[in-house]
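Submission checklist for the structure archive. All mandatory fields must be present; incomplete records are returned to the submitter.

[x] Identifier: Radical SAM domain protein
[x] Organism: gut metagenome
[x] Residue count: 211
[x] Sequence attached
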Amino acid sequence: MAPEHTSDRVLYLMRKPSFQLFHKFKRVFDRINREAGLKQQLIPYFISSHPGCEEMDMAELAAETKELNFQLEQVQDFTPTPMTVATETWYSGYHPYTLEEVFSAKTPEDKRKQNMFFFWYKAEERNNILNELRRMGRDDLIAKIYGNNARTFTNNAGRNRNFTANDSPTTRRNGRNHPSNDRAPEKQRTRNAHYDKPSTPYHKNKGRRSK
């Protein structure tokens, strides 16, 4: 399932419904699982660096998906696709329908900062995320994501994972799904964005007329 983001502002630019619809779907999904005695997994797909998405949106995504008991792996960094509204927005810096200016993360560093929030649960990303949240003044999100454990993490930069332009977030692959139960976070496999693209709004736009 592809909610793609938690920010309603970003979802509006994607022409997708509010993330509250995903919350409703998950409640129904979990209820059916319980009533039928099943252990089916709900595997959501999310995207970073979509036009209009800023680092703060990704930080809030990390907190909200953690609250939903997800540890995300099936994710993708935005890849421009010709003849789509999203790519026109990304390239020009303006939304073609409203002519409003829209931010897009384009540099490897900006993309890395957005993408890392998917992996808040990985030890190699904790210090990077904590430093960014402190810089943004979002101690509230630190508490939501890491709780009291945030104080135990060191600021030893040598332990952090280095990210280069050749280490694209779109090509991370972490193996098969892990078994889960009612208490364990739901884990998903990573999808290679270059060879296994899921259907997303900016891929489905081609040929559509504007409303």
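[x] Structure attached
Curator remark: The chain has one domain: 8-165+174-204. The chain has a mean pLDDT of 80.
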